[in-house]
Write a structure and sequence with these properties.
By secondary structure, the protein is α+β, with helices and mostly antiparallel strands. The strands form three sheets. Strands 1, 6, 7, 8, 9, 10, 13, 14, 15, 16, 17 and 18 form a twelve-stranded antiparallel beta sheet that branches. The chain has a four-stranded parallel beta sheet with strand order 3-2-4-5, sandwiched between helices. It is elongated.
């Protein structure tokens, strides 16, 4: 019986490049189909089947996020899935409709290798290969370590498509190229960590503390993953003294640690870091931050995601100056200011924090946050206050410590932590608070519309605040006074941060 593949190749004009490429393509297909690979007959068809509809990669992403133990692993998993989604959409909406190539004839493929259910779509390009390459490349762009783990699996999936007779080699190569391109396209929309400049101004020197010598680290026992991170700190910094304290004991422990060591360390979320920052600034000692809470915005904006990031900075003595946001009067003694590292707010957010903290111990942080958002937007009334001499109804007044910039489609990072500026955003009162808040979040800094306004300022005075109005700062909630002055203490804090991220 004549070989239909050979007939297909010979039907093209002799000597044409297309005929030569087709012949090579079919030759490689036959070589793979006829070659015996020990153990592959059981493994590769199952692996190929597991990648149907991206199931293998969704499972891998879930495993990375749950077991990776780091923010970088979770971010790599998300980037891999986003890259896969773009690659799959490109292949299925453009690729397969542009080139309607028939699948290979399976005469040369042993039955034991063939897929139990043969695909019915066109052959060019390989969607499985595109998804595999997109996921692996997306993961590697964010985390080389996880990329090295995923790449062999992605390669095996691509090879399995030839081995099982589902695709020609050229289908696989073009599909993989589309997958890699999709991952880089996603990176163009949402930069990776290495593309985002970490705050480096103004750089300053801090004491070099190899192995954590002369460093006292205070751990908030109630913060997210702080206890697990504390074990990592002890392993990475054997000369440091690490003390674990309950939230009501943090204040005294931080004061003592600031006087006992040459630097103050803190392991916890934004609330614990806020308290440590105020103590460090007052005692004029540098701060070493080990993110260990549910929210770690300050550490992440500095480019500190893992324990080893801070350890590298301690070993080299590299640090930066950071502004402290300030609101007067604060929640403490009469007339003394309060401080914030990330943000200060009035309006719906403080109430959201209160509800979230109430439910978090029972149902978890993220479900509690969603429940709080739904409850607040359904029942909360606008805040009444005077701004710049005008009485206003507001859903939200937000003041960020430094200007927040866009990272991809949404604003969310600060590139300069010592710019002397407040990122002030106001969402005016009115109907549909949810839509107004969403519009303000997507609009970014220095924008204005009928429902919101955003400006950069050095100070802001608020008067006429109704009694009992809550305020929030770095995740903490207190009652607001009748009048408030929000400004900044410029370059008041020194924080360890590695130069090479």
């Amino acid at each position: 019986m004549p070989d239909p593949i050979a007939q297909d190749a010979s039907s093209r004009p002799a000597g044409s490049l297309s005929a030569w490429l087709t012949a090579r393509d079919h030759a490689v297909f036959h070589a793979v189909a006829s070659r015996h690979w020990p153990g592959a007959e059981q493994f590769l068809p199952r692996l190929s089947h597991s990648a149907n509809h991206g199931v293998l990669w969704f499972g891998a992403a879930a495993g990375m996020a749950a077991l990776g133990g780091s923010t970088r692993a979770r971010r790599a998993a998300m980037r891999g899935i986003a890259s896969l989604a773009l690659a799959s959409a490109t292949v299925n909406t453009v690729g397969k409709r542009s080139v309607r190539r028939v699948r290979p004839v399976l005469d040369a493929v042993p039955v034991i290798r063939q897929l139990k259910r043969q695909p019915i779509t066109t052959s060019f390009p390989s969607g499985h290969s595109a998804s595999a390459a997109a996921f692996a490349t997306g993961v590697a762009l964010e985390s080389k370590r996880w990329g090295a783990v995923v790449a062999p699996v992605a390669t095996a999936v691509a090879v399995s498509r030839i081995y099982t007779g589902a695709h020609f080699p050229s289908d696989v190569l073009v599909g993989a190229a589309l997958g890699v391109g999709s991952a880089f396209a996603v990176r163009g929309l949402v930069p990776t960590r290495t593309q985002i400049p970490a705050p480096g101004r103004p750089h300053t020197d801090a004491p070099v503390l190899p192995g954590g010598r002369d460093l006292v680290v205070v751990v908030n026992k109630a913060s997210g993953t702080a206890l697990a991170k504390a074990r990592l700190v002890r392993d990475a910094l054997p000369l440091a003294r690490v003390v674990e304290r309950a939230p009501d004991e943090l204040g005294a422990a931080l004061e003592k640690a600031a006087t006992d060591g040459r630097a103050l360390g803190v392991c916890g979320g934004d609330g614990a870091v806020n308290r440590a920052a105020v103590v460090a600034a007052r005692h004029r000692v540098p701060l070493a931050v080990f993110p260990g809470g549910t929210l770690n915005h300050f550490a992440y904006d500095l480019g500190i995601e893992e324990v080893h990031d801070t350890c590298r900075a301690l070993a080299s003595g590299d640090a930066v100056k950071v502004d402290l946001g300030r609101f007067t009067p604060g929640p403490g003694a009469e007339g003394t200011p309060g401080f914030f590292l990330n943000s200060f707010s009035l309006g719906v957010y403080p109430e959201l924090v209160r509800i979230r903290e109430h439910w978090a111990p029972r149902i978890g942080d993220w479900p509690a946050g969603l429940l709080a958002a739904l409850e607040v937007l359904r029942g909360e009334q606008p805040l009444e206050a005077d701004l710049k001499g005008q009485h206003r109804a507001l859903w939200l007044l937000f003041a960020g410590n430094g200007m927040y910039q866009r990272v991809g489609p949404t604003p969310g990072r600060r590139f300069d932590m010592a710019d002397g500026l407040l990122d002030v955003r106001v969402v005016h009162g009115g109907r549909t608070p949810g839509l107004r808040l969403l519009a303000a979040a997507l609009a970014g800094p220095l924008s204005r519309s009928p429902v919101h306004a955003a400006q950069r300022m050095r100070r802001l005075r608020i008067t006429g605040i109704a009694p009992g109005t809550p305020l929030a700062y770095d995740g903490e909630v207190a009652d607001a006074p009748r009048e408030l002055l929000i400004d900044k203490a410029d370059e008041a804090l020194t924080v360890y941060r590695p130069l090479a991220l």
